[in-house]
């Protein structure tokens, strides 16, 4: 019997690819220099087939893994001459208009894998770099008006040729970065991860043969498509639309059409592209739609590959926030991404209330601050997403203190690490008591983090959404709370913000981060009293909230 159709062999190869992506992830994590990578895990790894389609579920941030196939496909388009792509080559990309997909801080490394002289796959990884030049430290300004202000642009260039570094490219990179030692450390970590994956894939191909390996990839893609098509048949058919006001007063619109064969997301009727960095590339818009599609169709099935998304069609209009024209800035793309994901989920949730939860804090809450370390005199930069609360569902309370739906297996940076590596003291880290999220199943709690600055002339940049338009409830629950930052000055003054760029901070000023509690699901007055009392005992609600929202004083 031919190995070609032996399902056990195919399954072993498919699982080996996932194990390879996991090993690449571990290599990147253990060798990176920046806490945003090795502690927060703001990164992703994956393997594509020879045509650039994701061959397995990958590892790391789901929204990042979804980038890697777009990068690979652009590389194949660009390097299409004999000798352009050779064994040992490594390519580097961060340009959203040329396969970089997200913003300039997220750098993608891709490496071709050859067997018997034939291209059989690509390994790829993506990680957030602290600084890539541009107009502000950290490279992410809320005031940038074109992509050139956001850092150096790598439109898919060869970094390593046949195993040898191209030194001029390395020199250009370090010369344009405020933190060249961190850049160099993180870059070599990414190269090491790509090489680990390449070595493992060559071992798999050597064991099973090129033909069987290529067949296994094709079979897995077909399986991914079958899972999605089976799930489509279980969804409510029809056309569903939503127009939602945003914090800045703009209206975002989505129309979802579900048939037996297609899941169509129409985003053409949306605001024209931002003059600032609040745009996301067409490729990244597709990533956001892919994540919503997977969440709605088959979240329990771990398969997520090129075949999974074949029934999905995404419609955009060039010149809008979801498909901007060059050279629009894209530094804060991630808030558009989470807004898009939440828009699709909110559109469908009333039609699937047993399956989809109420609204979450639904912001990346990207927070960047830095300055001069008071003990070492070196420049430091903190770049982190924040934890927040998820919405309640038909089945349970929302999860407290989690990252957004985009962030997968991301972790928060421990207070001890933050204090050791950065010029700050962590005064406070806990769930907060702000009102919001009451329900039969309540929303998960948001968090409060207080960073005390230890030196003068520090800087702070952030852009939080869901600061005015609160997380949305379902089935009679109550809205969640707001994402925002309070600056408590050493002088005693306080300021409340949701967006700021390069805000100046001095010694003993405190950055008080407040992330939203998720929305509630169901009537809070129907919540069993013993659960209300348990919440009160555990500090999830105050006595005043227990009485006002759950009628504890009237029902007990």
Give structural notes.
The chain has 556 residues and is an alpha+beta fold. The chain is 30% helix and 22% strand. The strands form four sheets. Strands 2-1-5-4-3-6-7 form a seven-stranded antiparallel β-sheet, with helices on both faces. The protein has a five-stranded antiparallel β-sheet with strand order 14-15-20-17-18, covered by helices on one side. Among the domains are: 223 residues, no CATH class; 166 residues, no CATH class. The termini are far apart. The protein is globular and about 75 Å long.
Short description:
With 556 residues, this protein is an alpha+beta fold. 30% of the residues lie in helices and 22% in strands.
Write out key terms for the chains shown.
556 residues, alpha+beta, 7-stranded antiparallel beta sheet, 5-stranded antiparallel beta sheet, 12 helices, 20 strands, globular
Strand order of the largest sheet: 2-1-5-4-3-6-7
Proportion in β-strands: 15-25%
Count of individual helical segments: 12
If you average the pLDDT, what whole number results?
A: 94
Roughly what percent helix?
A: 25-40%
Q: Which stretches of 5+ consecutive residues score pLDDT under 50? A: none
For the record, give the distance between the C-alpha atoms at the N and C termini, rounded to a whole number: 71 Å
Shape: globular
What's the number of extended β-strand segments? 20
- Largest β-sheet summary: 7 strands, antiparallel
Helix/strand/pairing category: alpha+beta
| Rg of Cα set | 24 Å
